[in-house]
Amino acid sequence: MSAILPPSERLWWKTPIAGQEWAWIGIAFVWAMIMFVMMIYWHINGKQNLSNEVYKTTTEMFTAKTEAFVKENTIRTETDQQIPVAKPNAKGEAFLLARLWSWYPILELEAGKTYKIHLSAVDYNHGFSLQPTNINIQVVPGYEHVVKMTPTKAGTYAIVCNEYCGIGHHTMLGRIYVK
Amino acid sequence: MATTYRTCPRTGLQFDLDADKLMRWNAVAGVLWLLVGGITALLVILTRWPAIKLLPADQFYLILTAHGIDMLILWIIFFEMAVLYFASSTLLRCRLATPKLAWTQFWLMVVGGIMTNVAIFQGESSVMFTSYVPMQAAPHFYLGIILFAVGALIGCGVFFGTLVVAKREKTYTGSIPLVTFGAMTAAIIAVFTIASGAAILIPTFLWSVGLIKEIDAQLYRMVWWALGHSSQQINVSAHVAIWYLIAAVAFGAKPLSEKVSRFAFLLYILFLQLASAHHLLSDPGMSAEWKVLNTSYFMYFAVLASMIHGFTVPGAIEAAQRKKGLTNGLFEWLRKAPWGNPVFSGMFISLVGFGFIGGISGVVLGTEQINMLMHNTFYVPGHFHATVVVGTTLAFMSITYLLVPTLFRREMLFPKLCQIQPYLYGLSMIVLSLVMMGAGTLGVSRRHWDMAFSGAPFQYEWPGSAYLMMGLTGIFGVLAVIGGGLWIGLVVLSLLFGKKLDGGATSDKPTPIPDQSAAAHASGTGSHEHVAVPGTVVLAITLLTCFVLYYFVNWKYLSEVWGLS
User: Fold this and answer.
1) Residue B82: which of B106, B64, B65 has the closest Cα?
2) Measured between beta carbons, which residues in chain B are less than 8 angstroms from residue A15?
3) What interface predicted TM-score (ipTM) does this complex get?
4) Domain containing A100: what range?
């Protein structure tokens, strides 16, 4: 008789389904397929897809690579802490290291150019949250993620850490300049 | 087996007294954890409200860890144990299998819950609900969760055992009721969930005591989320089962089609656990193909299942109401529903809030590329407060208005306040979810103590609208806490001081459920009459329209950010 009793039709799987339910199942199924295809379509024609280029790394390896990048490309330093500002060379390779509690170094990019940004964390998980454009990428220790980015508009952007990483989490703010 | 049964004179439900006591203790333990979770909720809200910013950073992260664990695990799973025992022993009118083991379930969960909370409040385990490695908590933080999970696994075992007992002792004929089928879905997903939890938390525990050197941070995230997200799928199955239960009790509603509803539950069993991927869409370690296939539950089949339930639950109510003669227009059945009965009003707000807010936002958030707009922002807790709180918690609260007289044999005190509570809690929680998602859309981070970034080497100023959204989060969060506190107060006071009700006649033997098919054949014409449910069709089309619009608006947002490849 009801949902809390055994089905009144002993052979409930043989009772026909009403047209209105078939119609809704059909509509919902079509919508599910559209949403599924949409993700694949965006990989072919969309301009915002997360890169699949990833390498295993270690704290030492990634720190060394970032230091080499900073040494070669620093154009000035900023703030009392003398944070280096690195401007990637013509090849557009850049390194960005997340650690407790800073993003290292500051990057200076050009609008319309495509960069390969190598992202990794050297201690805990961190979150790359680029504001105000709002792009969010997880940064996992042990993994070097090579993300191709094309800035669209000049400006000063903040990198907020949006993965909890301990008591100083809220001070972990980085910077990207786009000229 | 020596046990006694009583038949509730008000509902006709028959309780095995062993199960009766277990359900009461599990439900009460759940409510006490909800109280702890509610107090921590208030502290979290008052800290994230930029104008107040109550706690210092270390206490905030400690309290936020406690809030996640106590709400998402302890409150909900304790209550779910009561639901499992109810859906098996009570609905099938049979004795509970191995009540002693069921008590082991209860005490393991109590000990585990307390142990983890001790670890958190000692201050060395502010690692959040997710406890991502390599951030390390105290060993008893993990051990407590492991003990709790073992308890829950035993509870699932008792549930399956009871299904076997009922079948063997022939307490029912034909197939198990739909609600029991839904609870079984929850229990099956729970077994998968707990197995995943063991696979990651046992090594993590060994790592915390120094027996394992290292755990891969990405691997942890993948396996942990097979616990973290799948446990929310237990909740979905359980609260959908409760929606059907309330529809049946409040309206005598019959499923539109047993076949369709059960098939939808089957889709949950087959596909829901793939959702671990929802949390890894912006991670480095998985390929795009893996993400697309898993995040969509293998082509959105589990979403399809939820859309089916979203149609068949209100459809069953509409059909029952129309049969009673409420046939005018599209919505007379809904207008004349018992809106003053908190069992129904809570259930209906839960259904609509879960579908429109939680469901739509969840699918959008779980779209591979769109996730980059929202990953780890305040949008995420906004989404899951619409699913786990408006969906699950509110459904559990509604059924409790039924359980207090039936199971606890007490009359609810202050019926006027009981009437208001689901509206206050449900509606403020819906608005809270919306403004949290609004803040997240503007980029505000979750799990973040200070949106002004005091002490950072640079400045970043969020737009004024983000501050507005966070202020509204504070206001509606406090309202929701009041609504939740009201429920706890009403339930606890009624259990202590409510008028005692007659428990009903007891007997040594269970009375089996009369053969439904015989009754149906005697009364029915044998034809399969379908009642048209045009009101539900309109509701469903409205849902789909909102869904489609919101989905494509987010693709539009995505197309405007920096190019990524």
Assistant:
1) B106
2) 257-259, 528
3) 0.96
4) 54-178
